[in-house]
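Question: Hello, beginner here. Any chance you could explain the protein record under this note? Any guidance would be welcome.
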Amino acid sequence: MRMTDKIALVTGAGSGIGRATALRFAIEGASVACVDVILERARDTAQGIEKNGGQALAIEADVTDDVACASAVVAALTRFEKLTTLVNSAGVRAERHDHTPPPPEWQRVVDANLTGTYLMSRAAMPALAATGQGTITNLASIYGLVGGSLSPAYAASKGGVVNLTRQMALTWAPAVRVNCVCPGVIETPMTAELLQDPKWREAALGRHPLRRLGHPEDIAAAILYLSSDEASFVTGVALPVDGGYTAA
Protein backbone atom coordinates (compact mmCIF):
# COMPACT_ATOMS: atom_id res chain seq x y z
CA MET A 1 0.00 0.00 0.00
CA ARG A 2 1.27 3.44 -0.97
CA MET A 3 0.55 5.28 2.31
CA THR A 4 1.64 2.73 4.88
CA ASP A 5 2.93 4.45 8.04
CA LYS A 6 1.67 7.83 6.81
CA ILE A 7 -0.37 10.08 9.08
CA ALA A 8 -2.50 12.49 7.07
CA LEU A 9 -4.53 15.53 7.99
CA VAL A 10 -7.14 16.34 5.34
CA THR A 11 -9.19 19.53 5.51
CA GLY A 12 -12.61 19.68 3.93
CA ALA A 13 -12.77 15.95 4.56
CA GLY A 14 -16.53 15.92 5.07
CA SER A 15 -17.47 16.04 1.40
CA GLY A 16 -16.33 16.14 -2.20
CA ILE A 17 -12.63 15.96 -2.99
CA GLY A 18 -11.59 16.05 0.65
CA ARG A 19 -13.76 13.07 1.54
CA ALA A 20 -12.61 11.09 -1.50
CA THR A 21 -8.99 11.82 -0.59
CA ALA A 22 -9.38 10.80 3.04
CA LEU A 23 -11.05 7.53 2.02
CA ARG A 24 -8.40 6.79 -0.63
CA PHE A 25 -5.56 7.50 1.79
CA ALA A 26 -7.07 5.07 4.30
CA ILE A 27 -7.40 2.36 1.66
CA GLU A 28 -3.70 2.88 0.90
CA GLY A 29 -2.73 2.41 4.56
CA ALA A 30 -2.71 5.92 6.06
CA SER A 31 -4.21 6.98 9.35
CA VAL A 32 -6.33 10.07 8.69
CA ALA A 33 -7.33 13.10 10.72
CA CYS A 34 -10.55 14.21 9.00
CA VAL A 35 -11.03 17.94 9.45
CA ASP A 36 -14.19 19.81 8.49
CA VAL A 37 -15.96 22.98 9.56
CA ILE A 38 -19.00 20.78 10.31
CA LEU A 39 -18.11 18.08 12.82
CA GLU A 40 -20.87 15.70 11.76
CA ARG A 41 -19.50 15.57 8.23
CA ALA A 42 -15.98 14.88 9.53
CA ARG A 43 -17.37 12.10 11.73
CA ASP A 44 -19.19 10.54 8.79
CA THR A 45 -15.94 10.28 6.82
CA ALA A 46 -13.98 9.02 9.82
CA GLN A 47 -16.61 6.37 10.54
CA GLY A 48 -16.48 5.25 6.92
CA ILE A 49 -12.74 4.71 7.31
CA GLU A 50 -13.08 2.87 10.60
CA LYS A 51 -15.81 0.57 9.28
CA ASN A 52 -13.27 -0.66 6.73
CA GLY A 53 -10.64 -1.30 9.40
CA GLY A 54 -8.74 1.98 9.11
CA GLN A 55 -7.64 4.49 11.73
CA ALA A 56 -9.31 7.91 11.69
CA LEU A 57 -10.08 10.93 13.84
CA ALA A 58 -12.81 13.53 13.27
CA ILE A 59 -11.90 17.15 14.03
CA GLU A 60 -14.03 20.26 13.76
CA ALA A 61 -12.07 23.30 12.59
CA ASP A 62 -12.57 26.47 10.58
CA VAL A 63 -9.41 26.89 8.49
CA THR A 64 -9.81 30.68 8.49
CA ASP A 65 -9.10 30.64 12.26
CA ASP A 66 -5.40 30.24 13.10
CA VAL A 67 -6.17 29.03 16.63
CA ALA A 68 -8.51 26.34 15.25
CA CYS A 69 -5.83 25.25 12.77
CA ALA A 70 -3.25 24.91 15.52
CA SER A 71 -5.72 22.98 17.68
CA ALA A 72 -6.48 20.59 14.82
CA VAL A 73 -2.79 19.80 14.41
CA VAL A 74 -2.41 19.24 18.17
CA ALA A 75 -5.40 16.88 18.14
CA ALA A 76 -3.91 14.87 15.28
CA LEU A 77 -0.52 14.67 17.00
CA THR A 78 -2.13 13.66 20.30
CA ARG A 79 -3.91 10.78 18.61
CA PHE A 80 -1.28 9.65 16.09
CA GLU A 81 2.00 11.06 17.56
CA LYS A 82 3.30 12.39 14.23
CA LEU A 83 2.10 14.05 11.04
CA THR A 84 3.56 13.24 7.62
CA THR A 85 0.94 14.52 5.19
CA LEU A 86 -1.32 17.56 4.85
CA VAL A 87 -4.00 18.04 2.22
CA ASN A 88 -5.58 21.50 2.10
CA SER A 89 -8.89 20.67 0.44
CA ALA A 90 -11.20 22.99 2.39
CA GLY A 91 -12.63 25.82 0.35
CA VAL A 92 -15.73 27.59 -0.83
CA ARG A 93 -17.17 28.63 -4.18
CA ALA A 94 -18.30 32.13 -4.93
CA GLU A 95 -21.98 32.81 -4.32
CA ARG A 96 -21.96 35.60 -6.90
CA HIS A 97 -20.62 35.41 -10.42
CA ASP A 98 -20.72 39.04 -11.46
CA HIS A 99 -17.50 40.81 -12.36
CA THR A 100 -17.44 43.11 -9.32
CA PRO A 101 -18.25 41.08 -6.19
CA PRO A 102 -18.79 43.24 -3.10
CA PRO A 103 -15.94 43.36 -0.58
CA PRO A 104 -17.54 40.94 1.93
CA GLU A 105 -17.96 38.28 -0.78
CA TRP A 106 -14.39 38.83 -1.99
CA GLN A 107 -13.06 38.50 1.55
CA ARG A 108 -15.09 35.38 2.34
CA VAL A 109 -13.75 33.53 -0.70
CA VAL A 110 -10.13 34.64 -0.30
CA ASP A 111 -10.17 33.88 3.43
CA ALA A 112 -11.41 30.32 2.96
CA ASN A 113 -9.46 29.32 -0.15
CA LEU A 114 -6.15 31.15 0.19
CA THR A 115 -5.70 32.29 3.77
CA GLY A 116 -7.07 29.00 5.10
CA THR A 117 -4.52 27.09 3.03
CA TYR A 118 -1.72 29.19 4.48
CA LEU A 119 -2.93 29.01 8.09
CA MET A 120 -3.27 25.23 8.15
CA SER A 121 0.07 24.80 6.38
CA ARG A 122 1.72 27.14 8.87
CA ALA A 123 0.25 25.21 11.79
CA ALA A 124 1.30 21.83 10.40
CA MET A 125 4.73 22.73 9.05
CA PRO A 126 6.81 22.05 12.21
CA ALA A 127 5.34 18.57 12.62
CA LEU A 128 5.71 17.79 8.92
CA ALA A 129 9.30 19.05 8.86
CA ALA A 130 10.17 16.95 11.91
CA THR A 131 9.66 13.80 9.85
CA GLY A 132 12.12 14.99 7.19
CA GLN A 133 9.73 13.71 4.51
CA GLY A 134 6.60 15.77 5.02
CA THR A 135 4.22 16.63 2.18
CA ILE A 136 1.59 19.27 1.58
CA THR A 137 -0.84 19.12 -1.32
CA ASN A 138 -3.03 22.15 -1.88
CA LEU A 139 -6.25 22.34 -3.88
CA ALA A 140 -6.09 25.06 -6.48
CA SER A 141 -8.14 25.07 -9.70
CA ILE A 142 -7.95 25.45 -13.44
CA TYR A 143 -9.10 29.00 -12.66
CA GLY A 144 -5.84 29.49 -10.81
CA LEU A 145 -4.06 28.88 -14.13
CA VAL A 146 -6.38 30.46 -16.70
CA GLY A 147 -9.17 32.99 -16.73
CA GLY A 148 -12.84 32.11 -16.85
CA SER A 149 -16.34 33.47 -16.55
CA LEU A 150 -16.74 32.74 -12.84
CA SER A 151 -16.06 35.01 -9.89
CA PRO A 152 -12.82 37.02 -9.89
CA ALA A 153 -12.61 36.35 -6.16
CA TYR A 154 -12.49 32.60 -6.78
CA ALA A 155 -9.91 32.92 -9.56
CA ALA A 156 -7.74 35.25 -7.48
CA SER A 157 -7.88 32.95 -4.47
CA LYS A 158 -6.90 29.89 -6.50
CA GLY A 159 -4.18 31.75 -8.39
CA GLY A 160 -2.83 32.72 -4.99
CA VAL A 161 -2.82 29.07 -3.94
CA VAL A 162 -0.73 28.17 -7.01
CA ASN A 163 1.97 30.71 -6.24
CA LEU A 164 1.81 30.11 -2.49
CA THR A 165 2.52 26.47 -3.32
CA ARG A 166 5.62 27.40 -5.31
CA GLN A 167 6.86 29.73 -2.59
CA MET A 168 6.39 27.16 0.18
CA ALA A 169 8.05 24.51 -1.96
CA LEU A 170 11.16 26.68 -2.19
CA THR A 171 11.30 27.88 1.41
CA TRP A 172 10.37 24.61 3.12
CA ALA A 173 12.59 22.29 1.08
CA PRO A 174 14.10 19.82 1.61
CA ALA A 175 12.13 18.79 4.71
CA VAL A 176 8.65 19.31 3.22
CA ARG A 177 7.51 18.83 -0.38
CA VAL A 178 4.69 21.17 -1.42
CA ASN A 179 2.54 20.73 -4.53
CA CYS A 180 -0.94 21.60 -5.68
CA VAL A 181 -3.59 20.05 -7.88
CA CYS A 182 -5.65 22.16 -10.30
CA PRO A 183 -8.93 20.35 -10.93
CA GLY A 184 -11.21 20.96 -13.86
CA VAL A 185 -14.95 21.02 -13.28
CA ILE A 186 -15.62 18.25 -10.76
CA GLU A 187 -19.03 16.87 -9.84
CA THR A 188 -19.18 17.63 -6.11
CA PRO A 189 -21.71 19.20 -3.73
CA MET A 190 -19.89 22.51 -4.34
CA THR A 191 -20.67 22.48 -8.07
CA ALA A 192 -24.06 20.74 -7.88
CA GLU A 193 -26.13 23.93 -8.14
CA LEU A 194 -24.24 25.17 -11.19
CA LEU A 195 -24.38 21.80 -12.91
CA GLN A 196 -28.17 21.66 -12.55
CA ASP A 197 -28.32 24.29 -15.28
CA PRO A 198 -28.26 22.28 -18.56
CA LYS A 199 -26.65 25.15 -20.47
CA TRP A 200 -23.88 25.54 -17.92
CA ARG A 201 -23.26 21.79 -17.84
CA GLU A 202 -23.08 21.55 -21.62
CA ALA A 203 -20.74 24.53 -21.80
CA ALA A 204 -18.50 22.94 -19.17
CA LEU A 205 -18.45 19.64 -21.04
CA GLY A 206 -17.46 21.47 -24.20
CA ARG A 207 -14.37 22.90 -22.51
CA HIS A 208 -13.08 19.44 -21.48
CA PRO A 209 -11.64 17.54 -24.48
CA LEU A 210 -12.23 14.22 -22.72
CA ARG A 211 -15.95 15.07 -22.92
CA ARG A 212 -16.78 14.35 -19.34
CA LEU A 213 -16.63 16.16 -16.05
CA GLY A 214 -14.33 15.01 -13.30
CA HIS A 215 -15.14 12.97 -10.22
CA PRO A 216 -13.67 13.49 -6.74
CA GLU A 217 -11.85 10.18 -7.08
CA ASP A 218 -9.96 11.53 -10.12
CA ILE A 219 -8.49 14.28 -7.96
CA ALA A 220 -7.89 11.99 -4.99
CA ALA A 221 -5.75 9.76 -7.21
CA ALA A 222 -3.53 12.70 -8.15
CA ILE A 223 -3.26 13.83 -4.53
CA LEU A 224 -2.33 10.28 -3.55
CA TYR A 225 0.56 10.30 -6.01
CA LEU A 226 1.88 13.67 -4.89
CA SER A 227 1.63 12.64 -1.23
CA SER A 228 3.33 9.29 -1.71
CA ASP A 229 7.00 8.38 -1.82
CA GLU A 230 6.60 7.79 -5.57
CA ALA A 231 6.69 11.58 -5.93
CA SER A 232 9.78 12.03 -3.76
CA PHE A 233 11.46 14.18 -6.46
CA VAL A 234 8.39 16.33 -7.12
CA THR A 235 7.87 19.70 -5.43
CA GLY A 236 6.55 23.09 -6.47
CA VAL A 237 4.25 21.58 -9.11
CA ALA A 238 0.79 22.86 -10.09
CA LEU A 239 -0.70 19.72 -11.64
CA PRO A 240 -3.79 20.15 -13.83
CA VAL A 241 -6.25 17.27 -13.53
CA ASP A 242 -8.76 18.75 -15.89
CA GLY A 243 -9.68 16.49 -18.78
CA GLY A 244 -7.61 18.68 -21.09
CA TYR A 245 -9.31 21.98 -20.18
CA THR A 246 -6.09 24.01 -19.89
CA ALA A 247 -4.51 22.42 -22.98
CA ALA A 248 -6.71 24.48 -25.30
Q: What stands out?
A: The chain has one domain: 7-189+215-240. The chain is about 45% helix and 15% strand. The chain has a mean pLDDT of 95. The CA atoms of residues 28 and 160 lie 30 Å apart.
